[in-house]
Amino acid sequence: MKKLFIPILCFWALQGYSQTQTFQIKTEILKWPDGKKAAISMTYDDGTLNQFKVALPIMEELGMRGTFYINTGEIPGEKNEAKFIGRSPEIILAETEYFPTSQANIFERAGLIRFLDMPNAVSFHDRSGAAYEQGRKTEAYRILDEGFAQARAMGVNRLTPPKIIDGPMLGWEELRKFAGNGHEFGVHTISHPRLAVLDEENLIYELEKCAEDIERELGKKYLFSAECPFGTENERVMEYALEMFPATRNRMPEPYMEEFNRSSSFDPTKDFGKEYIQWQRGPLSKTSPELMKSWVDDILTRDDTWLVLVFHGIEGIGWEAIPEERIRTYFEYIASKSQDIWVGTFAEVTKYMRQRMASRVDMEVSSESIKVNLTTELDPYWYDQALTLKTYIPFGWEKIFVVQDGQESQLKFQEDTSGKFVQYTYLPNKGPLILKSI
């Protein structure tokens, strides 16, 4: 693990003291910005209408920013439509009558069935994919065989892009406006498939073409994080996704972080021996306000926890839609804890943690100044989050100014059991910063 502070012992002969006094001068990179106790990210899946018409305005009213993982295939003006890539559908359909589904052909068949122009086509795909991921492969094969039997009986001979979003979707012009207000957007595929049961070509197409649309319409910086649908942690899918994007909400394989996904239980009193905890919770339509508030209360009992909230439907639109009144009350409760909780987008929190763990602090100390230099080898294109530093200083200093890039401002002294200190923000690799005694 990288060292997060550099202690330097200095001896100071201070006026008014008969003997030399010893002080420890050190700089720490704080775990969270401004010394807060915890972090929360509000994330949304799918990009349904009321996420933007209802939830987003409440967040903006409270000074919060969210992360929206969007399916691009149904956005008006999209360029990349969902499609099946592979052998002739007619040949595959004919084969299903004589050859049962097995490991040898499940990816091809699961990829095709969701495009068949018949009722429940997407449901057959989703149910078989869920069974496959859960290790119930025989059931997954049976579900697909049932679906293709229905297709043959109906004489299906046409493919159509699957519709998976409830109601209308906003266009790119409105999404650009929200991005300009500081909200994060990320990849959620074109059409929300079970990626674990797609073959390589179809899996990559869903991720790459969604990313292509987002980059063209919003910019490359919105390709920092992705969420593969259904919260999958399938190893094959994760291998592709983590190669394509700097971060995924599905999995963050950081050695210094313990992850708890939406189906996991988390004991806030336990010491996990890691620098950070990521705890995902997915509020549903029947999740009680008391339970939702308890998640916030739990993270405030520690100093290492990042609560990642996963929302879907809002106010009648989308899967497991949560009423507007409950959303407002919950967000106001989180805002009431703003002294101790940092609400940041998924990208912002990820960047802060990674930069903190990968940055080096060097100091040069004299009787009248401390020169601090913060450096990291992380890619500056992606990693642009300012960090909060805390420097302990000699008790004899009465006023202190921070000087960087020719700008000078006074800092406020604070004190704890370790001594007298100042806090300030610093973007790595921007050159040295001077703390100057006056």
UniProtKB/TrEMBL annotation:
Membrane-crossing segments per the record: none
UniProt xrefs under InterPro entries: Glyco_hydro/deAcase_b/a-brl, NODB_dom, Polysacch_Deacetylase
Keywords assigned: Hydrolase, Signal
EC number(s) stated in the UniProt entry for this protein: 3.-.-.-
Enzyme class: hydrolase
Entry superkingdom: Bacteria
Localization of this protein: Secreted
Gene3D superfamilies linked: Glycoside hydrolase/deacetylase
Primary subcellular site in the record, as a coarse category: secreted
CDD domains, A to Z: CE4_NodB_like_5s_6s (cd10918)
NodB homology domain boundaries: 167-242
GO molecular function list: hydrolase activity
Designated name of the protein: Polysaccharide deacetylase family protein
Source species of the chain: Shivajiella indica
Lineage: Bacteria, Pseudomonadati, Bacteroidota, Cytophagia, Cytophagales
